[in-house]
């Protein structure tokens, strides 16, 4: 096979012709994407690897693992960090954790848009530590994760992304400690959007609406399309008895990300309070469409998490 002989350009060309005839051939799309990855045609590679996943690759476990791995690292390189973490979760759900996943997990967790091969030598230990901590959370080995996180913040106290990653873990277990880590991240990384979003989320929960609103608005300036930032700004406005601006922000959040269930719940309550029955009914229907599990009770967080929720 051309791919196995590392003749990637030839493999790519043959496979491109083949998939025009057999567009349902998942393994062919997989090998095409893997060949393109080796040729650094990353955008095409990601498209074709995802096409392979959609078509299915049968029981070819090694091929499936290779496809998943490349999709994880490419999503990170294209700054789709949350999607990368979701793919990592799928990989871990399908088998024992692979030490080779430490680097991809670390890059996604630290939100570094690099391939593993592109990590500078002086950052490798940082990425590995972050990755091992992230994998520990994903596999529910929380004692191992805690140890790795403590080493991470001890060895790299001023490195961007470190305190956000640790804070996102801590906030599920010890919210006040998580808040302190988010605050430290904001100091270190003035442009870190999610540190502000997660900090604002905690401040809303603590009913510190003035600080929450300020942080949410800062996040919006940095990333106007961040739905969770608009949602938290809306929640803070509503809590401060400014329903007009609150509803506008909540509607913006919903329009940016119609799957953000918490925003629909916020709007449902706001519309009911304002006597807007038709709008309230529409939000109720949207919640029901998003799934019965979400329609039973409002979700408790704003999303944008870098790893899974630890057990309480």
Describe this structure in words.
The structure is a single chain. The protein is mostly helical and 312 residues long. The protein has three domains: 1-93, Tetratricopeptide repeat domain (Serine Threonine Protein Phosphatase 5, Tetratricopeptide repeat), CATH 1.25.40.10; 129-156 and 163-189, no CATH class; 194-295, Tetratricopeptide repeat domain (Serine Threonine Protein Phosphatase 5, Tetratricopeptide repeat, Alpha Horseshoe). Helix content is 69%, strand content 0%. The protein has 17 helices and no strands. The chain has helices at 8-21, 26-38, 42-55, 61-77, 81-93, 102-110, 124-138, 142-155, 162-170, 175-188, 193-205, 209-222, 227-239, 243-256, 261-273, 277-289, 292-295. Helix 1 packs antiparallel against helix 2 (26-38), helix 2 packs across helix 4 (61-77) and helix 4 (61-77) packs antiparallel against helix 5 (81-93). It starts with 7 loop residues before the first helix and ends in a 17-residue tail after the last helix. 44% of the residues are buried.
